[in-house]
Amino acid sequence: MTPPQASEYVHANALVLGAFGLLLRGPSGAGKSALSLQLVADWRARGAFAALVGDDRVALEARHGRLIARPHPSIRGIVEARGLGLLRVAYEPACVLRAVIDLLASGESPKRYPDEEEATTRLSGVTLPRMFENAANVGAVARIAAYIQNVATN
Q1: What domain range is 77 assigned to?
Q2: Dist. CA 11–CA 6, nearest whole Å
Q3: What is the DSSP letter of 67?
Q4: 48-78 burial by CB neighbour count: b if 16+ within 10 A, else e?
Q5: CATH number (domain holding residue 65)
Q6: Residues 43 and 50: beta-carbon distance below 8 Å
Q7: Which of 23, 43, 83, 138 has its CA 20 to 30 A from that of 151?
């Protein structure tokens, strides 16, 4: 059995939607926090469990072939909402990540058909499925939901 690796912090958001852990990465101002709040609200409106794990800084730790995300201790349960400041929110202490969403910079759009080699990413020695999205695009939440459904059933 491989010993667990030490945690590494990444600039990202982690959330859990149903039983699906998701990591949102992207440049500052790409909409990670707003999209996280929107995804959580959307899942809850459907009657499904959803919660933020971490906003802005997330610890990643590989354990038994899975990637675990945890919030940074000094900012757990806090999300930055542009124009509102820091908000306290319900959060989960950890989740198993099942996919990564790489958010594009403002004005960029995802490729119509993604390259096969870009369909996964490797973090802390664990390979995860990945999609690219622009948080500001109309339909981003719906496309992410469809992606999660597709990944969860494969």
Answers
A1: 8-152
A2: 17
A3: E
A4: eebbbbbbbbbbbbbeeeebbbbbeeebbeb
A5: 3.40.50.300
A6: yes
A7: 138
Residue 2 lies in a domain: no
Beta bridge partners of residue 16, listed in sequence order: 21, 51
Instruction: Read off the tokens for 142.
Output: 């719906």
Is there a domain that residue 3 lies in? no
* Residue whose tokens read 């800084």: 57
pLDDT tens digits, 54-76: 999 999 999 999 999 999 999 99
* Count of structural domains, the chain: 1
Three-state DSSP string of 86-137: EEECCECCCEEEEEEEEECCCCCCCCCCCCHHHCEEEECCEEEEEEEECCCC
Structure tokens at 82: 């542009």
Instruction: Say what the pTM is.
Output: 0.92
Mean pLDDT for all residues in the chain: 91
Rounded CA separation 152/88 (Å): 30
